[in-house]
Amino acid sequence: MSAVQRWRQSLESLALPPELVASAPESPWGFAVSLFDRLADEAMTGQTPSRRAATALLGDGGAVLDVGCGGGAASMPLVPLARRVIGVDESAVMLEAFAARADRLGVAHLEVLGRWPDVAEAAPPVDVAVCHHVLYNVADLAPFVRALSAAASRGVVVEQTATHPLAWLVPLWRRLHGLERPPGPTIDDLLPALGELGIEPQVARWSQASPWQAGVGDVVAFVRRRLCLTADRDDDVRSALATEGVPATREMTTVWWQAV
Fold first, then answer.
1. pTM here?
2. What is the pLDDT along the chain (260 residues), one digit of tens a residue?
3. What is d(CA 183, CA 172) in angstroms, rounded to the nearest whole number?
4. 172 lies in a domain?
5. Is residue 226 one of the residues assigned to a domain?
């Protein structure tokens, strides 16, 4: 089995039991816009390997494509070097937050609603493409990555956690549902898959504070939603979190490559 196939298989193994999803009070997928806004706020003042890699690729400036843009944490810190930002997201609400931040920064912007690479033709060519915390949601890796590379004349910057971002929920699934869940793929599964696609990227490994350290209320609501629980289980969630803990830090990886 190829590395690309293993990537797909590992992600598909994370599918939730259909009966659990059917009984959930709300969709277990997605994030609150407030979380993405907070992450974008924090990104504006931080210097990370991802920001430095994108800055280096931009050189004297240009247009930036942000795929899975959320509130713009990947692209907005590049302004004013980024003279135009194009955000792609499946959520219209996220795109509204992206556009509002671009307006506040006074940068030209365009929003494209839909799934990448299905909407790739609606996004104009750019100098640099950035894609943060998206690939763990992409089972069909080849067309996604190839479209990223094709969209950017100078290069691509991808940021991912070193392990699947929901791997820390495994003991909570066990405690609150009695289910053994797989941890999902890691960055060490992604890199050989990229290699099979003809991409030999540069890689930087680093760490940062966990986004869940900022608000216990946020993490309780997040766990409840992800685990398909009702609000009356919040005390059980708090107890499980007190026992299992919330990650204080997360290991990160920046992966970037130049256009060829």
1. 0.94
2. 999 999 999 999 999 999 999 999 988 987 677 777 777 788 888 899 999 999 999 999 999 999 999 999 999 999 999 999 999 999 999 999 999 999 999 999 999 999 999 999 999 999 999 999 999 999 999 999 999 999 999 999 999 999 999 999 999 999 999 999 999 999 999 999 999 999 999 999 999 988 776 554 578 988 999 999 999 999 999 999 999 988 889 999 999 999 97
3. 12
4. no
5. no
Q: Which tokens in the block code for residue 234?
A: 């919040």
The single residue listed with the structure tokens 């690939």 is 135
- 62: phi then psi, degrees, rounded to nearest 5: 165, -165
Query: How many C-beta atoms lie closer than 10 Å to residue 188's C-beta?
Result: 10
Tokens of 2: 């190829």
For 67, the token pair is: 């795929």
Q: Which H/E stretch holds residue 254?
A: strand 249-258
Give the range of the structural domain holding residue 153, as residue numbers without chain letter: 3-19+28-164+182-211+249-258
Give the CATH number of the domain where residue 75 resides.
Answer: 3.40.50.150
Q: How far is Cα 241 from Cα 153, in angstroms, rounded to an integer?
A: 45
List the alpha helices (DSSP H) in the chain: 3-12, 18-23, 33-45, 49-58, 92-105, 141-151, 170-177, 187-196, 216-226, 234-244
State the amino acid at position 145 in one-letter form: V
> Token pair for residue 176?
């609150």
- Among residues 80, 121, 74, the alpha carbon closest in space to that of 104 is found at 80
Partners of 252 in the β-ladder: 161, 206
Number of domains in the chain: 1
Q: What angle is formed at CA 97 by the lines to CA 95 and CA 101, rounded to 5 degrees?
A: 115
Whether 57 maps to a domain, the answer reads yes
